[in-house]
Amino acid sequence: MASLKSSDLSASSNEEIRVKNPDDKGMGHGSMGWLEKDPRKFFSAAATRNVGGIQEVLRKYLADEPSGTVLEIGSGSGQHVTAFAQMLPQLQFLPTEYPGHPNPRADPQDAERIIESIHTYTADISNILKPQLLDASALVESDIGQDPSLLAMIAINVIHISPPSVMEGIIAGAGAKLKVGGRIFLYGPFAVAGKIEGDGNIAFQEKLKELNPEFGLRDTSVVASFASNYGLKLVEDVYFSESNNHMLCFEKISDAAHNLHH
Ligand SMILES: C[S@@+](CC[C@H](N)C(=O)[O-])C[C@H]1O[C@@H](n2cnc3c(N)ncnc32)[C@H](O)[C@@H]1O
Fold it and tell me: Given a cut of 70, is residue 65 above it in pLDDT?
């Protein structure tokens, strides 16, 4: 197993980050911005904190897979996909990013710069494909994962910072494009049984609603129920107590999506 180059993934202190919108820490739980030492690279402190836990789950489900393509939705900086590809060198990773930006306060040029950031992190890693633009709400109609079908999909901190059509598009896309036995992993804060727990998540929900009333934490059982329509079974709900986040792990058990009209 390849070892992680942690220097590529973390900044030693926030001094190294040129935070673009100093008041805008709310899209993640912590600082984010362009690195002073390499301004082509975007950096998310949250990604350095959550990457280890996410890797543990991916290792459990994907380490024994001999080959296959893993699609990442909303890759952000490129830090996560870098770590995943180094941990699972037998698999091929496809990072993608939204062509617009869901944060109305963001700079419109961010999408292009974010793609460049992903490219800068990943260009030298042979099992990472060139980053592509993808609006996940239109994944079913896109060329991505058409042939061959995908082994796995990952979306980290995406489905609450976007309208419900994005969660629906990701799930419908998984139903259409994963191979049977393939997996989809959704990481982030969730509501459970209709309730948002924890001061941090309650405040975050308010902030999301201020940004866009359609944003917001999704309920684990609503996502699981929606996914079941697409042949996707919730096999594990991993809870991370330090961050109060979940990682929902689904397996595609059938081609049920083929019976649905989109
Ligand atoms: C908080 S960032 C998370 C980025 C990265 N996954 C991470 O955890 O560092 C939210 C991500 O969701 C993406 N996103 C929002 N709407 C999207 C859409 N319609 N299609 C694809 N990605 C979307 C954003 O572009 C952004 O990369």
Answer: yes
Indicate the number of domains in the chain.
Answer: 1
If you take atom 4 of ligand 1, which residue's CA is the nearest one? Answer: 76
Q: What is the CATH number of the domain that holds 228?
A: 3.40.50.150
Task: Tell me the best of 54, 73, 98 to mutate to test the pocket of ligand 1, counting ligand atoms within 8 Å of each CB and taking the most.
Answer: 98
What atom in ligand 1 is closest to the CA of residue 47?
A: 9
48 lines ligand 1 (CB under 6 A): no
pLDDT at 57: 98
Which pair of structure tokens corresponds to residue 37? 């030492």
Atom of ligand 1 nearest to the CA of 32: 9
- Could you tell me the pLDDT band of residue 148, with boundaries at 50, 70 and 90? confident
Does 44 contact ligand 1 (Cβ within 6 A)?
yes
Q: How far apart are the CA of 12 and the centre of ligand 1, in A?
A: 24
> Lowest-confidence range among 10-19, 29-38, 51-60, 218-227?
10-19
Q: What is the pLDDT of residue 258?
A: 56
Residue 20 lies in a domain: no
Kindly state whether residue 125 falls inside one of the protein's structural domains: yes
Q: Domain of residue 248: give its range.
A: 48-259
Q: Residue 11: its pLDDT value, please? A: 40
The reply to whether 101 falls in a domain is yes
**Ligand 1 contact, 162 CB (< 6 A):** yes
**Pairing mode, strands 232-240 and 218-219:** unpaired
- Percent of residues, the chain, with pLDDT higher than 90: 69
